[in-house]
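step=encode ok
step=design start
structure_in=
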């Protein structure tokens, strides 16, 4: 019995470790492809004029491939939500072990400090090529003057960290002042663990209540930014749902039916794949209609598109988890290293992505070749740097 339990724990940890490695690869692939989307405007947007579209698409290359649009669209739907879920898994055990105040101090160092360092030191370096594309004066001094004249401080991918820190503070407050709520989340997770369909239904309902009203009010695309704090207006409550779903699953214990290699979720991974594809098709078809009709799109169609997002996000997340729980069998030193360095890679990769995309603007390569070069070089450089830094007393690991 003890050997079986130990094997189960090892299998769950292995699946989550491999999933973390896969997620960082997807993040790098997503950002590597953005310069080559077929849907990008014909020319690069100006650096110093609203609506500052370069915040989402820093480099615009003349080489395009529609396949990258099809790859990036589903990642934009589920990837960040899944990252919030995974980040929540170990929050409650950590709170129980450290207590609320020690937990908060650790999170401020783990999330707040890297956010400040990366945003204020690395993001100007990362975005200098964005300025160069349309600059009249390419000097560093002119760039810095234009940078400081912006009505915000571009934060890039690290926006995830400040929102995650806020959610960690909320979790610590729950643990301190209403600990029964954490246990309630754990009981709800245990209710759905043996029956993933129930957990899926609860997640979809909670996510729909959190996402759809805000998506109708603000549209699914609108961002707001105050200083370095960027926020996609329709998604903060949606991300909170996924984070606290992860907190609940972690409070119940990751060594339960949900992450068991013989559980229903793992055994039905193919069904979750079919659900993810169907939900994505629902989202993309309804969203394309709303974009085509613009202001004349009926409210019912907008609600269908927003519900398509909710369904696609949940089903894609469940599929990815199910696939790794089902297929994770043997430990790999490469995947272990990638997983251990995933957080650090996330922090620094954007510098390499943008500079490489800029450097390849005039290269005589097709879009697929350029994206592949950006992805591989970014992965190798980011991974090597973080592996070296982890040998120092200040270590980087995983945000979870």
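sequence_out=
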């Amino acid at each position: 019995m003890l050997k079986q339990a130990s094997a189960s724990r090892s299998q769950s940890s292995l699946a989550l470790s491999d999933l973390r490695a896969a997620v960082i690869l997807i993040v790098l692939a997503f950002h590597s492809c953005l310069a080559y989307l077929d849907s990008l405007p014909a020319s690069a947007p100006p650096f110093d004029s609203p609506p500052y579209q370069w915040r989402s698409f820093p480099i615009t290359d003349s080489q395009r491939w529609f396949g990258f649009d099809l790859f990036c669209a589903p990642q934009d739907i589920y990837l960040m939500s899944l990252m919030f879920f995974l980040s929540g898994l170990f929050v409650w055990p950590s709170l129980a072990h450290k207590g609320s105040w020690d937990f908060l101090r650790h999170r401020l160092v783990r999330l707040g400090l890297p956010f400040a360092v990366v945003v204020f030191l690395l993001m100007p370096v990362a975005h200098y090529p964005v300025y160069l594309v349309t600059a009249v004066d390419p000097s560093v001094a002119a760039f810095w003057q234009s940078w400081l004249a912006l009505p915000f401080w571009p934060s890039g991918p690290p926006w995830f960290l400040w929102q995650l820190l806020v959610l960690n503070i909320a979790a610590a407050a729950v643990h301190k002042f209403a600990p029964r709520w954490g246990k309630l989340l754990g009981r709800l997770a245990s209710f759905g663990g043996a029956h993933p369909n129930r957990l899926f239904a609860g997640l979809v309902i909670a996510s729909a209540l959190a996402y759809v009203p805000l998506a109708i009010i603000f549209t699914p695309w609108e961002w707001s930014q105050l200083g370095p704090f960027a926020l996609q207006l329709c998604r903060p409550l949606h991300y909170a749902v996924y984070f606290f779903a992860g907190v609940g699953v972690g409070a119940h214990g990751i060594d339960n039916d949900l992450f068991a290699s013989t559980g229903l979720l793992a055994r039905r991974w193919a069904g979750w794949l079919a659900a993810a594809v169907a939900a994505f098709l629902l989202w993309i078809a309804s969203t394309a209609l709303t974009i085509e009709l613009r202001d004349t799109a009926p409210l019912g169609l907008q609600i269908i598109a927003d519900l398509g997002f909710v369904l696609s996000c949940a089903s894609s997340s469940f599929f990815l988890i199910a696939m790794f729980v089902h297929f994770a069998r043997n430990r790999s030193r490469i995947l272990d290293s990638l997983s251990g360095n995933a957080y650090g890679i996330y922090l620094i990769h954007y510098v390499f992505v943008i500079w490489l995309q800029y450097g390849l603007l005039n290269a005589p390569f097709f879009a697929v070749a350029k994206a592949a070069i950006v992805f591989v070089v970014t992965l190798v450089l980011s991974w090597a740097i973080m592996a070296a830094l982890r040998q120092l007393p200040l270590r980087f690991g995983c945000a979870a």
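step=design ok
step=annotate ok -> DSSP finds 15 helices and two strands in the chain.
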